Amino acid sequence: MIIGGGAAGFFSAINIANKKPNAQIMILEKSDKLLYKVQISGGGRCNVTHSCFEPMQLIKNYPRGEKNLINIFHRFQPKDTIAWFAERGVQIKTEADGRMFPITDSSQSIIDCFMKEAKKNHIDIHINTAVDSLQKTKNDKWRITTSKGDTIVADKVVVCTGSHLRTWKALEELGHQVESPVASLFTFNTKDTRLRDMMGISLHHVQLSIASTKLKSEGPLLITHWGLSGPAILKLSAWGARELASMQYKFVLRINFTGLQTAEEVKNEILSIKNTNPKKQISNTILFHMPTRFYESMLLYSKIDTTKKWADFSSKEINILTELFFNSTLDIHGKSTNKDEFVTCGGISLKEIDFKTMQSKLHSNLFFAGEIMDIDAITGGFNFQAAWSTAWVVSESV
Predict the structure, then answer these.
(1) Which of the four pLDDT bands, split at 50, 70 and 90, describes residue 306?
(2) What range does the domain containing 71 cover?
(3) Quick check: helix, strand or coil at residue 49?
(4) Are residues 391 and 364 in the same domain?
């Protein structure tokens, strides 16, 4: 019995069927939509995995579950994912940022592949069917009662429901500990006047930190109509998911817009530009390769006279510019979902799972795969890879 008709559920079912052709396999899905996250991922293109083929590097993209996934990725990693789909006629391509998609640029290619494999292997699929109860029998099997009133006995159960509170409650009743869910991979809301009318502007490389914490991040930044997004923000939100939730998403964000490492380096860069362009107005000299509109907005915020020539700039004004670009602070007052991809951290406590088999340490013949566990990753195909890899190990164990 596979509970959950998503990525991990289908991958578990198909691979179990491939290795155990005579097995009777059933998938239960509570909604009327199979493989929904596969469908919407990557803007409908399905970000299948990421071109990171070294397990020790791959695990660095997982704020939670990093150590537990080392062995898993040595057994099934992105190269294996690519080969698996290729064997079934789905070619995967790599984009410049390392994300990998089907060459059709359509998630339907992945969905069609799974549905074809499920049909070929006679996997019994039931939609609009939730699990009301999950009970262990005396002979080490599982009795499942569904929302339709059916009772089914299974030799083995694989739970792949993702962040599903009803399933978590059923597992808690079996003695499992569930780490409380909080949002991960979200964008930051701010009403800072410097960002007004800046929607769509991106900065190639910034450094971020959150005041009064050890949280740091760097990378591209995107300004949106509600605040800040982009890889640097999403990475910070993933690693800070629990801490930021405890702060109710109200905090001070520090931003170094320059790409340089120290305030002294920034100041020296500004002084160098001053010395080489003494007759130019500051507004006509774009610092740190910033987008013009953004640069002008920052100068307006600083209240420096932008008609001044560099030669007339005082040491005090140089220090103001240094602080403005190297150590800006923005008040964050909330979060927004990243596109349609709502990701949470939380789930079954990892200490209660045997990662050699993906079996529960509390109950035999009960397995887990995908986001039902307290494992999550940054954006880029890493969450799907964890689903494929843990599902693969489940199929080996079963």
Answers:
(1) confident
(2) 2-183+344-397
(3) strand
(4) yes
